[in-house]
Amino acid sequence: MATLTPPVHARSSGLLVGIAAASIGIIYGYDSSNIGAALKFIAADFGLGDAGKQALATAVVIGEIVGAILAGWLANRIGRKRSMVAVGATYCLFALFSAFAPTNATLLGARLLLGVTVGVSIVVVPVFVAESAPPRTRGAMLVAYQVATILGIIGGYVIGYFLAGHGAWRWMLGLAAIPALLVMLMLITMPDTPRWYISKGRVDEARATLRAIDPDADVDTEIGEMQRALTEESGGRITEMFRRPWLRATVFVVGLGFLIQITGINAVVYYSPKLFEDMGFTGDFGTLMLPALVQVAGLAAVIISLLSVDRAGRRPILLGGIGAMVIATGMLIVTYGPMHGAGTPAHILGFTGLVVFTMGFSFGFGALVWVYAGEAFPARLRSQGSSAMLTSDLVANAIVAAFTLSLINAIGGAGTFAVFGGFALIGMVFVYFLAPETKGRKLEDIQHYWQNGGRWPDTTVVENTPRTKVSR
């Protein structure tokens, strides 16, 4: 039986798990924003209109959908860790392909393949963290991925600003290869998750990994619980997700994934330069650095979520964040409607609206998608469950990427944000009635919520939480 190398075995906490997830998040975030910074210059070089710009933004999302569909199978087949190493290697390769693309068609192909890589990452990372982190810090580590994603988004805008004076869009896209290479090298030294080792019968490696990431754990008890959970489940086939008791969980995660994106956050990320230009801002600072400052506010919000998700719980954070998004869309409707062209007052209201919208998303939807993606299903369905949730998320993302500019041209900025605000209200109702509170509960316990028809049975043991007969 293979054993872990001493440097990995010597690590005494799950901190490295969070670092690994964060590293992948930086790549994902940078890819989301660098295309927004580069679009103007790509369009000038290749003679593209709004349809061509939307195609470049959408191509990577279509690839992400393919990657998300394949990710569950890949993560189970070769492991969570090897999947993430493959993400780092292929992302580096396709980022370079994008930078050297001689034609628009070649660039579209490179971004499609880049998207496949990103799609795998956004499924595998939540599974890797959920299966590695101790229950008391699992939520915070999953939210840390969103922190890193926002840092990557900020980096994309800032680098775009400094390169904008030279129109150097190839450098904007190609520089993404550097963090991808560093991530790949770091991940090579890490073990896989204890639960994946158990699923493959590699108990010694599971035990060694569990000791390394959580020295306070009762290793034999944890191993026994994982083995029992795998034994009790009938299998890991995707068809199980569409039968009771997991059908309810599937409806929840697929619906939540769709609502997270259809509310419009990536309209802001992909097309911020256009949005700021329409509000009357000019110059590279107004169209690239101000979007970066909006994301800094989002970073502050997600850090607050990171610090509170394992204390306040998932539901209050989700509902609070969505509420802020609803308020923000009202501010933006006024900015693009009655106050359009009003100068400084409109600039202030519009900038504030985008800040509040981004903060609300980052605090709620943005942070908690990774938590629920990793928590909602039992071990042998976890990869497929995350894949289904993120595929739904990406379908909505593709819709937003493909139609936002056309929607703005058709009904204006006010109408566009009214549509997003309507979806945010639907999201609030959806979360209120369907989202479970999983704070402090072990992954093996959470499955009982769905087995009990969407309610916690009174026999479920919850760490540091008073026992109640029934709760949402």
Describe the 3D structure:
The chain is an all-alpha fold and 472 residues long. The chain has a single domain, classed as Growth Hormone, Chain: A (Up-down Bundle). Helices cover 79% and strands 0% of the residues. It is built from 18 helices and no strands.
Characteristic terms for this protein:
about 475 residues, mainly alpha, Growth Hormone, Chain: A, 18 helices, about 80% helix, globular, disordered N terminus, disordered C terminus
Summarize this structure briefly.
The chain is mainly α. It is built from 18 helices and no strands.
Topology:
Elements: H1 6-9, H2 15-46, H3 50-78, H4 80-99, H5 104-132, H6 135-164, H7 169-174, H8 177-187, H9 194-199, H10 203-213, H11 219-232, H12 247-262, H13 265-278, H14 283-312, H15 314-336, H16 344-375, H17 379-434, H18 443-451
CATH class, named Mainly Alpha
Query: Helix/strand-derived class?
Result: mainly alpha
Helix content: over 70%
CATH architecture: Up-down Bundle
CATH domain topology: Growth Hormone, Chain: A
Number of discrete helical segments:
18
Rg (CA only): 22 Å
Q: Whole-Å distance between the termini?
A: 43 Å
Largest sheet: number of strands, sense, barrel closure: none
Q: Runs with pLDDT <50, length 5+? A: 1-13, 460-472
